[in-house]
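Example record

One chain of 265 residues, shown exactly as stored in the release files.
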Amino acid sequence: MEPTVLVSQQGAIATLTFNRPAVFNAMNPELILAMREALAGIAQRPGVRALVIAGAGKAFLAGGDVGDFHRRLAQPGNGLVDTIKTMGDALHDGIEAIRNAPFPVIAKVHGAAAGAGFSLVLACDFAIASTNATFTSAYTRIGTSPDGGSTYFLPRLVGMKKAAELIMLSDTLTAEAALANGLINRVVAAEALDTEAQALAERLALGPTAAYAQAKQLLNRAFDRPIRAHLDEEIARFAECTRTADFREGVTAFVGKRAAEFKGY
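Predicted structure tokens for this chain:
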């Protein structure tokens, strides 16, 4: 049986690929548990300085496996509520792992990013999409409220009213519309997606990884506390960065008027 999640590493760049192409990578319990395990493992891998998340086949990730939900509904005592809670906990562990990863995480999106796939895109630090990508919350189409953090990320990205529109109406956005609404960073031709995502990952992998990790934690807390508390943590994390070899290299390179060669620590 094919693994539902594939992990590879080339140099400092790791790639996680959802691998249920026959169902557009729809999430079943096996895929979600494999994703959680893979993300936890990647965060501990030595030398990883950027992560790309992608989907095999014709889609990024088309949300939960609704066919599986339907089959379970037909079974007496199906335990669907407990299954959903277990799946949700594992999915949310994965979302948290993305946000706490000590390196940038890039969503490489083609085809559909729906439901939990949409939420995963929002959770990543960067998202680059092909012109054939589409984005939709999708949850209300099957009569549920969202999971995967979309009600957390969307208001921060687009404001409350637009977030309500995207969630409750569940209209499908083109890649260009997602870009215009600040949901993704770049749109490229389908044939250029792999090349452009690799170039972005390489650029990030050559950057000051420890500083990126500190910046991610600051961004995670940006909406949740008074300004002074945030300012205090900013300077504390800035000071921590001055202990790194990358800070020494960055300052030395700046004064020497040359490009910095960061090592990631």
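Notes: Strands lie at 5-10, 13-18, 50-55, 105-109, 112-114, 126-130, 134-136, 173-174, 186-188.
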